[in-house]
Structures are given as structure tokens and as C-alpha cells.
Please model this.
Amino acid sequence: MDVLDLARPEIRTMEPYSSARMESRGGRFLLNANESPWPPFDDGAAWNRYPDPQPAALIARLSALYGVDPGQVLVGRGSDEGIDLLVRAFCRSGEDAIVVSPPTFGMYAVSARVQGAEVLEAPLRADLTLDAGAVLAAVTPRVKLVFVCAPNNPGGAGVPRAVLLRLAAALADRALLVVDEAYVEFAEAGECGSVAACIGDCANLVVLRTLSKAWALAGVRIGAVLADARVVALLRKIMPPYPLPLPSVDAAMRALSGDGPHAMRARVAEIRRQRAHLRMALIRLACVREVLPSEANFLAVRFRDPDAALAALRDAGVVVRDVRRYPMLADALRITVGTADANARVLAALGAVGTSAPAPALRAGQPG
Ligand SMILES: *Cc1c(COP(=O)(O)O)cnc(C)c1O
Model:
């Protein structure tokens, strides 16, 4: 079976929009896109021209970085755009479905609901690790995409590569396995590393990568879909004509060149050190019930009295993510690992919080 047989048939046969920029290769006088003939500033930046829809230099850099062929890379506005394109290309409204493993990143379900696709759930195990058996059991003939966030947000658990590859093999000819590796750079080297290099062997394996976290470019909005070249070609057909602003492409190229990769590795090493330190220090605090093991740049922390912890942090000027609305995390806050200074503030604020859980009467209004 061809992996494209899983896609929406009307997308496979659709004639894509042909943009003026695609048709202008080799020309000297570009009078086909109704652009201004003059740039807005005299600093040499050709911002008067529409950008290359898929800039070759950026694709080349990303394909080398992730160890895949250029034809296996789709670059877009963050992995959020990749998630949306996958759902729109593979899920027919009112007919098809996706599988997610809650508690996990919310955008998979949001994109599916916008598209009119059903969201089936295969919850994580009680220790918040992936339950691959439950995922397989949730897959029906209507399921086209299975999303796994590895390491997972907001829990932080990594997923062993062997588990992901077995899952991809078990789903062959049935559904795409989409592995969201937004935090994989922060995973300790070893069994929970990237599966990007395996997409050549697994036509139904898709990997999402982003420059928003380890590469410190959240404001620049660049992410990549790594997949079988035919899947990438299909997604290119439904992508907006000029998704990537020139200043963003320039910023990404800067971060990925010269000293950029070295600086990224140094930042990641420091975050890992800070994560270990923060975790050990949090575990010793009286107000903390548990700190979930994390392969990402955040810690999910269970509190005896989450409201008191949140208030103490807020009073210290520290904003964290309240994840109590997620299943299995009804007492948890998610704390991003920051600078040594910021982390010290977290510990100081929480060190002053009492040890007792709130009286039962006060808990009545809280979500389960
Ligand atoms: C932050 C994050 C992303 C990154 O999204 P971008 O659109 O690339 O900024 C993707 N997936 C998960 C799980 C995330 O937490």
C-alpha cells in the first residue's frame, strides 16, 4: 500500500496554486508578481520581493541538521503549521479521526476539531509514560494520524526510540505516526533520542521539529515536517503560497550557521544542568508532592496545595503554567527551566509555602 492512499483523495488529485515567485526563476526583470521594484530600506534587504516558498538554503541546512534528504523536509511557521497541514491533508471532515495520548500538547486535538475530525484518546499510563498498547487498541479504520509527543508536554516523559519504531511498524498501511520532537534536544543522550533518521525506512513515520525551543527562536516561527518525500510533496500542495517571511528565514539561517549550533548546544547543556538542580531542590521542599522526571526544558510538579504554590510564585513575579485542567495532573503546575537566577526565585518563593493540604471544604470547587 502507498502511504498516500491514507490521504484525502481530493487533495491528492488537486491542482495546487502556482505562485508568481515559483514562475520567476531565471528572469532579470521581475514584473509578474505586482511587487514594488524598490526595496523599502536601502540596507540591501530585498523585502520588496515575495519570499521563496521553500528556501533552498534553509532546507539544505535543516536536512543536514536532521540527517534526512532535502525532499523529506517541509519548512513552515513552527510545528503548529505542520500539525495543521497534516490534519487537513489526511483527515476528511466528519469521517476520519486522529489518536492522541492525554495529557499531551493541545494543538493536535484543536487542529483536528477545526477540520471536523474526531479525536480518539489513548491515555498515558499512571506514571505519565506512553501506553503503546493502548494507542494500538485505539486505532480504528477511520484513524489516519496518531500523534505522539516525545518528550511529552506537559508531563516531560521521553519515549524510547524502540517503542516509537515498533509503533510505526505496527501502524504501517493503517495510519501515519506523527512524532512531535519539539523538546528532543533536551533529552539525555541515549534511548529517547530522535527518530528523524528512520523516516527513510518507515514511509508512515512523520517527525515534527521546531526552532522554537532549543534554538531559542520562538518569535521567529520556523518548524519542519520530516517525512517521506511524497508526504512532503502533498503538504506543499496545500501550504499557503508564501508561508515564510524573509526576516524569519534570515534569522533562522543566522542561528543555524557559524557559532549558532555551538551556542545552541551550550544553552541546552546549561538547561539540562539547571533542570537536574531544580528537580532535586524542588523534591526537598515540603509543599511539593512529586516532581515528574523530565527529558524536556520544563518540570511538571505536583503540589500539596497548588493554589498556595501558584499564589506564592505570582507574588514573587514568577509566571508558570497551570496544567491542572489536564487529566492526571489535577495538582500540577508546569515550570519552565530558566536561568539560575529565575530558578532560584522559584525555589525561594516555594520554600515559604506551608506543608498542609487545603481543608476539604476549600477543595470542593476544584476540577477533579
Ligand atoms: C512548543 C511546542 C511546539 C512548538 O511549536 P512551534 O509552532 O514550532 O513554536 C510543538 N509541539 C509541542 C509539544 C510544543 O510544546
